[in-house]
Amino acid sequence: MKMKEEKFYTARGYELLDKDSSTLTPSMEDYLEMTYRFTLDKPYTRISDLAAALNVQPPSVTSMIKKLAEMGWVTYEKYGLVVLSAKGREMGAYLLERHSIIEEFLKLIGVKADMVLEQTEKIEHYLSCETVQSIKKLLQLFEQQPGLRKELQEVQGQ
After folding, report:
1. pTM for the complete prediction?
2. CA 70, 83, 27, 49: dihedral to nearest 10 degrees?
3. What is the pLDDT of residues 122-132, one digit of tens each?
4. Burial degree of 106 (CB within 10 A; 0-12, 13-18, 19+)
5. Among 55, 84, 111, 150, which is least packed, fewest CB within 10 Å?
């Protein structure tokens, strides 16, 4: 089989190609998304809240929040509150929307309920904004045409 003239990379290779110093890592995205989730109810969150929600130790949260603060995503005072900056709120909203879109897509295609969250967490960091928007449009199509969902379920044998 003859291969196309495309350049292939490992998953890590693609990460490195897309990386610059202002890029959020997957872990940073997780912290920012969770911070945003907490700030939907109140304008701030605490290190202990993030540690419990993300199943990590408070010193790990403090370290990450300091990095996010240096990048301008949050403000943080030692032993104080974590508050999203304007760009942090905007990014947090996007990250939560992206998470919801991917989660809904995985449910649509029949991923088992007990695997949806883990699979969403693994996938969400590696899709471009354009891909997420394409998935969103597909979900909207299935929403507008309920017969399509039924057809898909029949094909899947559900």
Report:
1. 0.85
2. 140
3. 999 999 999 99
4. buried
5. 55
